[in-house]
Design brief:
- The chain folds into two domains: 3-117 and 350-367, Enolase-like, N-terminal domain (Enolase-like, domain 1, 2-Layer Sandwich); 122-340, Alpha-Beta Barrel (TIM Barrel), CATH 3.20.20.
- The radius of gyration is 20 Å and the shape is globular.
- The chain has 13 helices and 15 strands.
- The strands form four sheets. The protein has a seven-stranded parallel beta sheet with strand order 5-6-7-8-9-10-11.
- Helix 7 (198-203) links the parallel strand 7 (185-188) and strand 8 (212-213).
- Helix 1 crosses helix 3 (98-115), helix 2 (84-90) packs antiparallel against helix 3 (98-115) and helix 9 runs parallel beside helix 11 (269-281).
- With 369 residues, the chain is an alpha/beta fold.
Length: 369
């Protein structure tokens, strides 16, 4: 791919409003932007979606920066590649650290698509010209939730995800369902329950939810299989699925009926597409999860969600959902419940260089021979 240079931007930006889960509250988002330049001056961009602290996974911005600086970029310097798939294979020598791998691998995919004068969606095998958009409600009161939902519906979002935990579940969701009896609603538990909460989770069946996401432990597929046999609401696995093998085993065990694919969580687009292809072949619907990300990761998600197996609206919202000003041009917009899939080369979005530099707190440059 004739890589000439890789730049890492560590950026930080405040959210327009706090994002609440039982695991913690996010008010400021830190992230890593990866820029890969080839010898002809073409550039590809990726985004590291780890958080500042390890509340979602064990990775953080600092650990990702270490992996990129000391391990992954030096691997690329020593082993030139022709296609992004080769980078994914090269990175297999490093255990886990999926978000660090993904930040670099997705930048290579963007660059490769531009070198091929093709959109990233087309390179991946996307079949949609637009994707349906969903959104997350993350608050601690019913009044705030109902207010957010009404606003989101006015903006055209087609599916609502509500964060829950044992202190805020049935009554909270029942009030929402009472106000919106036909609305597609899913609940996201972020591993807040155990099998001792079986009756609480069974009670949610009567609310006609699309699914309940990751109700049990973040690394479990065994007990989820037990739970899925006892409840009619489809279980969706998120944190438990970090590799293709996790997805294969979960489906074979009956641990879930839906899978959420996050590019950063699984280590990049190669692994994400492999999971998608297996789920499609086994009639397991998938959807694209979000990570409170900036526009570059959002753009990669749009390309991925254009694949045929993504039949459920994902957590891909407008840039304005979280940011006063994003780092891409144009910003992502939801129109009548859909987001257009770009057909321009690469991710199909430019970089707002002014905003990128305004939010950058440090930068590192790596030269290739």
């Amino acid at each position: 791919m004739n890589i000439a240079q890789i730049e890492l931007y560590i950026i930080q930006m405040p959210l327009k409003s706090p994002f609440l889960t039982h695991l913690g509250t996010v008010e400021n988002r830190e992230g890593i932007i990866v820029k890969v330049t080839d010898n002809d001056g073409l550039t590809g961009f990726g985004e590291g979606v780890a958080f500042s602290t390890p509340w979602y996974t064990e990775e953080t911005v600092k650990t990702s920066l270490h992996m990129l600086t000391d391990i992954l970029i030096p691997l690329l310097q020593r082993h030139p590649i022709k296609r992004p798939e080769e980078a994914a294979q090269l990175f297999q020598s490093v255990r886990r650290n999926h978000m660090a791998k993904s930040s670099l691998e997705t930048a290579l995919w963007d660059l490769f698509a531009k070198q091929e004068s093709s959109s990233l969606a087309a390179i991946l095998g996307g079949t949609r010209s637009q994707i349906a958009s969903g959104v997350v409600v993350a608050t601690d009161t019913t009044a705030n939730a109902l207010q957010q939902i009404e606003q989101f519906l006015q903006e055209g979002y087609q599916r609502i995800k509500v964060k829950i935990n044992p202190k805020q579940d049935y009554t909270f969701l029942a009030e929402i369902r009472k106000s919106y009896p036909e609305l597609p609603i899913m609940a996201d538990a972020n591993s807040a329950y155990t099998l001792r909460d079986m009756d609480r989770l069974k009670a949610l069946d009567e609310l006609n939810l699309l699914m309940i996401e990751q109700p049990l432990a973040h690394d479990d597929i065994i007990e989820h299989a037990v739970l899925q046999k006892e409840i009619s609401t489809p279980i969706c696995l998120d944190e438990s699925i970090v590799t293709f093998e996790d997805a294969r085993k979960a489906i074979e065990l009956g641990s879930c009926r839906v899978i959420n694919i996050k590019v950063g969580r699984v280590g990049g687009l190669c692994e994400a597409k492999q999971i998608h292809d297996f789920c499609l072949a086994n009639n397991v619907p998938v959807w694209c999860g979000g990570m409170i990300e900036f526009g570059i990761s959002r753009a990669h998600n749009i390309a991925l969600a254009s694949l045929p197996g993504f039949s459920i609206p994902g957590d891909i919202s407008s840039s304005s959902r979280f940011w006063e000003e994003d780092i891409i041009l144009p910003e992502v917009q939801v129109e009548n419940g859909f987001i257009k899939v770009p057909d321009e080369p690469g991710i199909g979005f430019g970089i707002n260089e002014k905003r990128l530099n305004q939010t950058c707190v440090s930068k590192r440059i790596f030269q290739f021979r």
